[in-house]
Design brief:
The protein has about 625 residues and is α/β, with parallel strands linked by helices. It has eleven helices and 26 strands. Strands 1, 2, 3, 4, 5, 6, 7, 8, 9, 10, 11 and 12 form a twelve-stranded mixed sheet that branches. Helix 6 packs parallel to helix 7. The longest helix is centred in the middle third of the chain and has 22 residues. It is globular. The N and C termini lie far apart (about 70 Å).
């Protein structure tokens, strides 16, 4: 087989664009589902690209994004959930943006970060020079601006400043989040070209994750989901057209991961948040004409080897010729492997496996890591000629259930469990050993908390969200979206923080976020209804008024209690204020409570705004 020569890739420093939408997979693109949404731009891109046909992400949002950004297994990064503070990416992790920035690239992100919204966890703290974002994991999640949907009136954040969603009439008319983020992406690329600086752009669209809103440009008679995907396709077309018109297309490494996690799709077994194939396998395209990675229908090809998003960072590093950051900590080694050799192979259907490689995917979604929870251990098996003859999946549905074994090369829907066959005993033992080695690596720091830093000069005032409460209770006990905030259920948990300095601190315990302080009070419902968790299909709500009469805050670290204060409040105020002196610098936990007239527990303060007042 013929490989691209070194001269082929010795071109001017290429731009790099990664596109990854949210909660879509095979069934959402007409290449794989002719009866589904119409996606001509995505379909055309696939016919001009190298496709990885056995590509795996994590089963849910934040874990997938952590793997992509670091080249490391998500459980090792601290981000193994989407809420509870377990979506936070550890501060000592090295991101792809940091790598590109250190190599002279201008870096930008548009859309969804979902790895932390406070210092030092924000994308601007992790190597991104330009940011245009929703906060949290979706347009109507708790950290997002109050009342947001994917439609106006909504507010997003550009370089940390709130910006209203409007109809800019730039390419696609209609105020819709995907149009907004595409406009910001094109602006970023234009500005980079003006500065004569190569750019790294991460286009992390927040669709088609709920709320399912109907885009203004939708065809009649289709569902909001279908319309959202078709709007996504139009915006992908806009990005491709900008690259073409700006004469950047041939020397841009364009990566399209066609879903941040798997989804039910009719082709594979499982769903989002699942250990079976549909939960974590998604389509993947890469195109770089000047670098020998397709660029036209005559050079498009497929790569059949087992691959993962942890491989993208080392692959881009080798393809583009980047040096690693000088300060990479020993505890954050890259877990992925470069796929450069396989991607540059020129055969139409490429089979170049990484020998004896074992990959593991699991779905945690707990405050603490749980061994053997929803795990999938994967390996390609080849013959003497290097051809793949088996694609093994060893599945552990839970710690209580037995292992299952499937060969998806002949059983793509994982319908025939062959784990009981004596012929596979040695294979199962080998794959189990692979899991044990993986678990030892990824769980080594599992007991650590990832903490926001309070009182930094970079972000002196921080909101602690209920979205990020640690607790042993299930997801429904964590108010992670604005509908749950409005419902006013008596829920609680604690935030893990780091005080940057010792001294006196002020805490504002709020029932509602400060952006609607002029419309609400501690004991009020909303003055304007919101529509939540489903866009047009849900009924508007004014929420539930709570008879708050007193509040409490407790601050501690391990066995030492720094403060435990309860006081009466004026229910017509916006917040209950606590001023607490003598708090030491260092790690701590913070928990809050609201109480009713008879002392009944009404749950925690859903928004806690914190800042330092006095320090030595």
């Amino acid at each position: 087989m013929v490989f691209a020569t070194l001269a082929t890739v010795a071109v001017a420093k290429p731009n790099v664009v990664i596109i990854m939408p949210d909660d879509v997979s095979f069934g959402d693109y007409s290449t794989w589902n002719a009866a589904g949404p119409r996606t001509p731009n995505v379909d055309a891109l696939g016919k001009q690209s190298v496709s990885l046909t056995d590509f795996h992400v994590a089963p849910t949002c934040s874990p997938s994004r952590a793997q992509l950004m670091t080249g490391r297994y998500t459980n090792a990064t601290g981000a193994w959930h989407t809420i509870k503070g377990r979506e936070f990416l550890r501060a000592d992790e090295i991101t792809m943006a940091q790598l590109f920035a250190e190599n002279g690239y201008r870096t930008g992100i548009v859309g969804k970060w979902h790895l932390g919204d406070a210092y030092p966890l924000r994308p601007e703290d992790r190597g991104f020079a330009y940011t245009a974002l929703i906060r949290g994991g979706g347009a109507d999640q708790q950290p997002a601006y109050w009342g947001n949907l994917n439609l106006a009136p909504s507010t997003y954040f550009v370089n940390g400043k709130p910006v209203a969603l409007t109809d800019e009439d730039d390419g696609i008319p209609g105020a819709f989040s995907t149009n907004f983020f595409t406009n910001r992406a094109i602006e970023f690329m234009r500005d980079s070209v003006k500065q004569a600086t190569p750019f790294f752009l991460y286009v992390a669209y927040n669709v088609a994750h709920g709320p399912q809103d109907m885009p203004p440009d939708a065809r009649t008679g289709i569902s909001p989901h279908t319309a959202t995907v078709e709007n996504l396709d139009k915006n992908v077309g806009r990005l491709l057209e900008y690259l073409r018109q700006a004469h950047l297309a041939d020397n841009t490494v364009l990566v399209f991961i066609l879903g941040d996690n798997g989804m039910a799709n009719g082709l594979l077994r499982g769903n989002k948040g699942n250990e079976y194939e549909a939960g974590h396998r998604v389509p993947f395209f890469i195109r770089w004409k000047d670098g020998g990675l397709a660029g036209g229908t005559d050079s498009a090809r497929e790569v059949a080897l087992l691959a993962s998003e942890i491989d993208l960072l080392p692959t881009l590093k080798e393809l583009v010729g980047l040096h690693d950051v000088a300060h990479r900590p020993d505890q954050v080694p890259v877990h992925g492997q470069s796929l450069k050799a396989a991607l540059l192979q020129q055969s139409r259907t490429v089979v170049l496996p990484l020998p004896d490689r074992v990959l593991v995917v699991d779905n945690q979604r707990e405050d603490q890591l749980v061994k053997y929870k929803q795990a999938c251990v994967m390996r390609d098996e080849t013959n003497g000629a290097g051809q793949i003859v088996h694609k093994w999946r060893l599945i552990k549905p839970s710690s209580e259930k037995p292992w299952e074994l499937y060969d998806i090369l002949t059983d793509v829907k994982e319908a025939r469990d062959v784990s009981k066959s004596a012929d596979h005993a040695a294979l199962i033992t080998e794959l189990k050993q692979g899991y044990e080695k993986w678990w030892k690596e990824v769980s080594a720091r599992g007991s650590e908390y990832v903490r926001v830093v309070l009182g930094s000069d970079v972000e002196p005032r921080i909101c602690l969200y209920a979205h990020d409460w640690h607790s042993d209770n299930g997801d429904l006990a964590t108010p992670w979206n604005q509908g749950m905030v409005a419902a006013g259920r008596p829920l609680n948990g604690y935030n893990a923080v780091q005080f940057s300095r010792s001294g006196t601190w002020r805490f504002e315990l709020r029932r509602w976020p400060e952006e609607i302080a002029g419309e609400t009070s501690l004991d009020s419902a909303l003055s304007r209804p919101i529509i939540h968790s489903g866009g047009q299909t849900d009924q508007p709500t004014l929420g539930t008024a709570l008879p708050i009469r007193s509040a409490r805050i407790k601050i501690w670290n391990e066995a030492t209690i720094y403060a435990d204060v309860k006081q009466s409040v004026d229910p017509k105020e916006d917040y209950a204020q606590f001023t607490i002196p003598g708090l030491p610098a260092g790690p701590a936990m913070i928990q809050t409570w609201f109480y009713g007239p008879a002392g009944e527990d009404l749950g925690g303060a859903l928004y806690d705004y914190v800042e330092a007042l006095v320090h030595p």
